[in-house]
Amino acid sequence: MTGDTGRVALITGASSGIGAATARLLAARGMRVVVNYLHSETAAKEVVAGIEAEGGQAMAVQADVRDNAAVDAMIDQVHDSWGGVDVLVHNALTPYAIKPFRDMTWDELGGKLDDEMKAAFTVTKAVLPHMTDHGGRIVLLGTGLSRRPRAGMIALGTAKAALTQFARYLAQELGPLGITVNVVEPGPVAETKISNVLDDEQKQRQIAATPMGRLALPKDVAQAVAFYASADNTFMTGTTAAVNGGMAMY
């Protein structure tokens, strides 16, 4: 038995990649895991089946995390089955344009900012009532691109920079309630949908710039998330963990 046994963790965007790896790891550590998804029902149910096959507890719940009504319905479903959410891992990635600023419209840049912040705002608001009474852990997935620009990634990098500052303000306000708020900022991660936009030459350049000699895997990022999500992590809040193999040090 660990301090995490029986705690309820909601992972948004958990049907694949970092979200799925995080769901599996938190379940292996005894948490009851909510695998949120938007479109990928089959993949989400496969994640749940894999967790259950290992003796864990999980459920797949569809919701667009930008939609207040959908998120409220998801939280109600979780509450009816398991009670309130103790751990929120906000990993869901909304679409974004990859192009230079000169070619970008305000709808593409401003739309990504709006989607990013609305999703984080909505899911955090939804889990707070339970956490206010019981304490909790909030982990937001950022990106190293919010600190180190890369060509064509201004929409994602700018939106995630806003998310990181949002987390700091939450950490300041919610700390007295026993709620920690932290950010995990991966560098390039292999075996994810985002990694598919890079060609082999770009990936090799990134590997060459990484002291650890490889790109991160989803499970590497999940380990950092799990640390922040743990019941044992009572005093670290408002921090950012860079999971990039030393590609950038700050």
From TrEMBL:
Gene Ontology molecular function terms on file: 3-oxoacyl-[acyl-carrier-protein] reductase (NADPH) activity
UniProt keyword annotations, A-Z: Oxidoreductase
Broad class of enzyme this protein falls into: oxidoreductase
EC number assigned by the record: 1.1.1.100
Database matches in InterPro entries: KR_dom (IPR057326), NAD(P)-bd_dom_sf (IPR036291), SDR_fam (IPR002347)
Domain of life (superkingdom): Bacteria
Domain Ketoreductase: 7-192
Pfam families assigned to the protein according to its UniProt record, in alphabetical order: adh_short_C2 (PF13561)
Homology family: Belongs to the short-chain dehydrogenases/reductases (SDR) family.
Name listed for the protein in its UniProt record: 3-oxoacyl-[acyl-carrier protein] reductase
Species for this entry: Kutzneria kofuensis
Lineage, highest ranks first: Bacteria, Bacillati, Actinomycetota, Actinomycetes, Pseudonocardiales
